[in-house]
Amino acid sequence: MASLSVKGQVRLGVLVSGRGSNLQSIIDASHAGHIDAIVAIVISDVADAFALDRARTHNIEAAFVDPKLFEAREGFDAAIIDLLRKRDVDLVCLAGFMRLLSPLLVREYRNRIMNIHPALLPAFPGLHVQRKALKHGVKFSGCTVHFVDEETDTGPIIIQAVVPVLEDDTDESLSARILTYEHQIYPKAIQLFAEGRLEVRGRRVFCHGMPASEQDEKRNWGVINP
Ligand code: GAR
Questions:
Q1: Residue at 4 is within a domain
Q2: Which residue has the least CA distance to atom 14 on ligand 1?
Q3: Is residue 117 in contact with ligand 1, taking CB distance under 6 Å?
Q4: Which of 114, 140, 173, 198 lies 20 to 30 angstroms, CA to CA, from 80?
Q5: Ligand 1 center to residue 167 CA distance, Å?
Q6: Has residue 20 been placed in a domain?
Q7: Which of 69, 40, 52 shows the shortest CA–CA distance to 16?
Q8: Which of 16, 21, 178 has most ligand 1 atoms within 8 Å of CB, for mutation?
Q9: Active site residues
């Protein structure tokens, strides 16, 4: 079975635009030895993104690529690809990266770009996710780690976590509840990749070699918060 991963320690390139709490969860998991991966470079399209400070604090290379220097998305993405290639990045992790990727980057790293989204895709793609979920009146929401394809938030789903929506929830309280699960499932998805257990067939992602003890409960890699 063709595995998506590389042998040995996976080198991550993490793309960020903001505070970087998901980046932090990946760095922490790497340092704790919970994932066979290291963050090789953090790249931001926002000069003062706090995520860049987090990277520097951990002596991880932090790069700002200014979108204003490029006329088209492809130019910006070519600069990103150049940085990722030079650092031998195996897996690209979008962690609160708020720019659309061009097909150039998606093609270069086909099934090697993951994104975390704070909803149960395909529900509520795009922006203002919590507001849309509350307005719609859903009883459960959650988060999704998926591979990135050419469209927004449409790629094959790797892991989801389900979170209840409470009657007195605000955008902020629901975001905060979901975020704690984002920090759990993103490192988990990276580790599945690192172990070479993920296979994409069409829209579906299959996970091979699940330990027997985990098969009954976790065979679909959904995480349910009762
Ligand atoms: C996270 O909630 C992430 O799921 C979301 O942005 C936040 C970034 O937080 N991403 C998207 O909405 C992408 N469509 P962080 O910077 O603290 O990781």
A1: no
A2: 117
A3: yes
A4: 198
A5: 23
A6: yes
A7: 52
A8: 21
A9: 117
Q: Is 85 exposed, middle or buried (0-12, 13-18, 19+ CB in 10 A)?
A: exposed
The per-residue pLDDT for range 108-144, each reduced to its tens digit, is 999 999 999 999 999 999 999 999 999 999 999 999 9
Q: Cis (ω within 30 of 0) for the bond into 187?
A: no
Q: Which domain holds residue 64?
A: 10-219
Put simply, whether the predicted model's pTM sits higher than 0.85 gets the answer yes
Residue 188 phi, psi dihedral angles, 5° rounding: -65, -45
* Predicted confidence (pLDDT) at residue 1 exceeds the cutoff of 50: no
Please tell me the distance from the alpha carbon of residue 199 to that of residue 204, in angstroms, as a whole number.
Answer: 8
Q: How many domains does the chain have?
A: 1
User: What is the CATH classification number for the domain harbouring 59?
Assistant: 3.40.50.170
Q: Answer whether 182 contacts ligand 1 (Cβ < 6 A).
A: yes
Residue with the smallest CA separation from ligand 1 atom 3 is 96
Q: pLDDT by residue (tens digit) across 37-82?
A: 999 999 999 999 999 999 999 999 999 999 999 999 999 999 999 9
Q: What is the pLDDT of residue 223?
A: 62
- 3-state percent helix, strand, coil for the chain, nearest multiple of 5: 35, 25, 40
1 falls within a domain: no
